[in-house]
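thread: overnight batch results

M.L. [08:02]
morning all. the overnight job finished for the chain we discussed friday. pasting input first so we're all looking at the same thing
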Amino acid sequence: MLLTLLIVACCCGTALAQAQAKAKKAQYNVSNLASLGGTSSGGNSINDQSWAAGYSRLPDNLSRHATLWRNGSILDLGTLGGPNSSVTWNVKNTVGIIAGISQTATPEPLHENWSSAAFYGGPNNVGFINLGFVWEQGQMRGLPTFFGGNNGFATGANNFGQVVGWAENDVHDPTCVSPQVLQFRPAVWELGPPDQIHDLPLISGDTSGAATAINDNGQIVGISGICDQAVGRHTARHAVLWENGGVTDIGNLGANWWNTPTAINQHGDVVGFAGDPAFVEGDVLHAFMWTWEDGLRPLKPLKGRTPQHVDSEAYGINERRQVVGVSCDAQQTDCRAVVWDHGAYPTDLNDLKGGYSARLESAKDINNLGEITGRAIDSTGVRTAYLAVPVQ
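M.L. [08:03]
and the structure it wrote out:
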């Protein structure tokens, strides 16, 4: 009997110690990332060198610039001549390549808004040609579009000098919704000199699409659909994976819109968000994870919130299959940065942030060290890029 009690006590003590260690490990030291002087910034990418990238508004709050935070300093990446630029997706390489979008100084000849208008904010978010850019060794340069196209958009880059995104060609596509005019195709740029662009195949019957992320195995994810507004919706009829020259539809959660992979790790695990059958305009979305062994499965929003959370979106994944994103109510009034750690339901990062006072509103990327970047909002409504470092 005494031996049994000792064994039980030992096991309980070990389990408690493991639970305490796990709880301790789950905590984060959260800090604001410096701004370029404006009142809005956001972190959208973090690599394994702890380089965070995203955007920050300038002191006049009229424009934002692509921004890199590294080694405790902030770097304005500049623009291609226009007022705005931004790093909008997660860029996972460790060779110093940053990819994003920038306005040029050239007026948009067809008066298109292009995809990037949604990522800048006013007042100068439209009216200029936009190009995908790469930044390396202190220099930003624009990437070519397809023949006859005006605009481009770069999302990610791997360690082998391959950059992905989308770009216009010269086809006036009847499936485009005004003010969009030109068709656009998923693009891969092989960095030079010279930088060379080639397109990726679409699902049969589709006319436009976009690539959103790439890994070091050359696996690429993105969307395939029709031209539409160039901001998702029906352009994202299909969430797709490109591999070995082919394209695979990885499925959806019941809707033929807004099916958008956002990240892929080196194992080929994919995360993103899918449309809801009742919300064609994307008012409610559902996070997903896709793996070769399990296919596509939903990642749920937070439970027990008031108002109830119904929207979830996954943005980043690391090699341990830790997934970060956001959970919101239907009106987007209560949005919370979350992490899915091998479960269908997430954890609110605000429960793990220690004494950090602002609300962690979104989590956009996570690296293999477990470090997270995103955007926080304080009591005055100011939104700020943050870095969350797990406590060892």
